[in-house]
Amino acid sequence: MIGGLFLNILTPDKAQSFSERRPLSNLPPLTLHGVFTGDYSEAFEKYALDQMVLREDLRSLKAFMQYRIFGKLDNNGIYLGDSSVYKLETYTDHKQIQYFTDKLNAVYSKYLERLNVHYAIIPDKNFYMDSEGVPKLDYDFIVNHLYQSLSNMDEIDLFNVLKSDDYYATDLHWKQENLQSVVDHLMMAMGNETKIDFSTYDIHEFHPFYGAYYGQSALSLSPDKLIYLKKPWMEGITVTHLDQMIVSNVLYDVEKLESIDAYDVFLSGPSAIVEMTNPQATTEKELILFRDSFGSSIAPMLLEAYQKITLVDLRYIPSDQLGEYIAFENQDVLFLFSTTVINKGFIIK
Amino acid sequence: MVFSSVTFLFYYLPLVLMFYYAAPKALKNAVLLVSSFLFYFAGEPKFFALFFVSILLNYLAGRAIEKYRTTPHGKGVFVLSVATNLLLLGVFKYANFFVDGLQTLLQLNMAVVKLALPIGISFYTFQAISYLVDVYRGEVPAQKSFINLALYISLFPQLIAGPIVRYKTIDDALDSRTHTSELFVEGIQRFTVGLGKKILLANQLGETWGLILQAKEPTVMLLWLGAVGFTLQIYFDFSAYSDMAIGLGKMFGFDFNENFRHPFMSKSITEFWRRWHISLGTWFRDYLYIPLGGNRVSKLRWCINIAIVWLLTGLWHGAAWQFVLWGGFFGVLLVLEKAFLGKVLLRLPAFAAHIYMMVTVILSFVLFNSASIYEAIRFISGMFAMNGLPLMDALTVYYYKSYGILFLLGTIGSTDIIQKEVAKLYRFKAFELIKPLALFSLLILSTAYLVDASFNPFLYFRF
Question: Which residues of B are known catalytic residues?
């Protein structure tokens, strides 16, 4: 313990934890208010936990103990399948799912009544897990509830289109390069006749890609390969982050490949409202895509078929502000959300 | 501050040990007192003044009781000082409970300021009362040194979650104690084992109760998993704290009494309470039950004595009706065991008596840990499939598989098997070499779990 004291004092503090994708606590400032309210003690413990010497190794040791010695099937809800890492979600939250559909209906009533509106549920990869007896969400409930609640919209079923290989092994997201059948399915359902052929795109690879679950598992797993697909016409597009008025032609932000979350390469990561225009699109159609982070990687692949795609992330922008940014006229509309977000519907604004 | 925190393990404790052992003998108590005050202040700054005033009053009261013990004033000072301690405990721990009860009874809806519970008040109040009673009875002289008395009440190893240390067991050590490397090593060993019990077993076993709470519709077997899990958790949590307190005591030259002796090995509730939270049981016996007349009274009076002691034991654990009922439940069982059940249990095969004790204790802890009596009834009836819950589902099977080894380790660890097996190893010289390595590994493993977890409170802090 005395050794730990000196090592903790002498070891320089780290700014962030790459494995957990968060900034680490710094030494809290010593103030009278902090000391007398107890806030200082609390903040110091957070700091001590975050800056503990050999922290990452200790987390790995704990994970090893959990799986190998105590025989736990998961560690902090992280389940190791044969070829993939899963975050267990056992509780299907009916209230939050109801809230989610209420929100979508409110958006529909306010903006979308005369438009061509579809919705698609992206199953989280646990749906395809073949391990017996591992707890999962009640997908039947989610599908049925959305079907009954979103009666003004047309459903596009993706459950039978995707498979477990379409997701990264160490991350929750789907792989862009595997979305050919998803894109075909969406195009057909929304009446867009453009045939988008993934084989005509250039493949760009990034390796190693340590997904979100890699860090959470705290074990030494094989990292993924992150692939993003490009075509020359992508140089001529415009990407505008409407809420921040940042204009560029960056669909793939390669600087993000070296950041905490390399998945942010797709459209630079989370953003409230993004407008992409492609003057060389095969149609003059426009699409409004209400989406979560899964939408960031599929949207570039839809851009060939749409002159303009507006991506809206209702986690970051209240729906009643949408009128300030979008003129709802005759666009196609697609609500594309993962079951993880649907089950945590309260995060929708 | 809790023992199972990085702040305590890798900042506070090493610094205190260094200052303590660097200090000359005359200053050791002062160093320990300042450290103990810092320990309390770090966890509960807003109640530090109350804590300090309480110590000062008890110091002055002890001196006054001794001075006037043989005069009528002595009794007055004694009664007043004990009443003051109980009043402080009553106001901060039970005022909300009584006011809420009164509002319900009189159907009032007045806005009332809710008082927070100062950490450790139940423990240090009982220690202070035991000191005052012992001084009044003439069993010990009043402590002349304020530092020593303050140290007795505030000694950080047992300050916030016991064991309840009697003044007479450490009064000599407060004045003068020896520090040996053997005792220090023994202390480290006991502390580290306690830390491992708390972090590796108690915290993980306790997760199973959370599974019940988050389940939309728990199964019968999930309820049993949670109930057994919590029963094991509270044992490992609380006994671990006592282990750590005893270990720390040894590091600083004190010898605290044992607080647990494998209670789940009992074959009756009477035996269980002789092995569980011994310092609380003996406190109530010596300072309440026997002064009330104990069992040397009429049967009716004896039953009343038992009722008073056990309802108060329940209430000591928390200001809520489920705790009162919990205490009452044990009171009734103890009367029944004394009346006839104890004899029946003696005639039963050992395993049957053991099952009776274990099931009773598990059900009692469901009541103990439920948010209300209504919730406890719901859980207990569910455990016996009385409210139509399914017996088992895929999720429950998953949890049984996932927690199976932990439950096995917990069950074995709650008996004396490991202790006996380890004792046999002392015959081998190599064990002397392996032991420090094993303890070091346990510390590293505990730290690994600690670093990985963000929420790690001790259960007994709410009492």
Answer: 317
